[in-house]
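To close the section, here is one more complete example, presented without commentary so you can practise reading it yourself. The ligand is calcium ion.
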Amino acid sequence: MASERLLVAEDEPALRQMMCDYLSSEGFRTLPAASGEDALRLFAAERPDLLVLDWMLPGLSGLEVARRVRAQGTTPIIMVTARGEEPDIIVGLEIGADDYLVKPVSMRQLAARVRAVLRRATATQQADVLTVGTLRIDFLGQTVSCEGKEVPLTATEFKLLAALARSPGRVFSRLQLMEAALGDYYEGYERTIDSHISHLRRKLEADNIIQTVHGSGYKLMPPGE
Ligand code: CA
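Output:
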């Protein structure tokens, strides 16, 4: 089972270490960051499953990091704030943080919140309809529309698009897409994915929704944003 990857942004080294150690002992993989800039860099490079963001970070604040991460998709965010910063908490939740913790942080509570937020995010992922920008994927009806126009897709194209759209901005390798779209029954080569992708692009009538990441694979960027 793949363990979820958590980005932990905290500038106090001892606390950062403690959080990472505890979350690792609970089976998560952790990506530590010491500043807001580090957090954004790591987020862009690693696309973690969840962010734990200290409010007060040197340079870019946790709030600013949260705002920028939220602009790129729905990756869950837990804000960590000092006692007495309740108005900040409201602002944090308004910009789309999923939960918050007040320092001093109990490690058990941190792990529990992480699990709860990830569970909620997974439930969203399993929703019947997924909307990413102007792209709408209906899993019950197995239909896709883009900018309100229905796009007829083959079953394989549908699975490919769904895999990409569930994690906007995340880079998928061809192998990962083969597994997502074709399961264990595929034949042929990884390059098969390229031709499915080019069909998808043509049908969506947009080249920039599914972007090629040279040397890595593909990612989906929300259309119409
Ligand atoms: Ca701090």
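Once you have examined the tokens, check your reading against these statements. The pocket of calcium ion is lined by residues 11-12, 54, 56-57 (CB under 6 Å). The radius of gyration is 19 Å.
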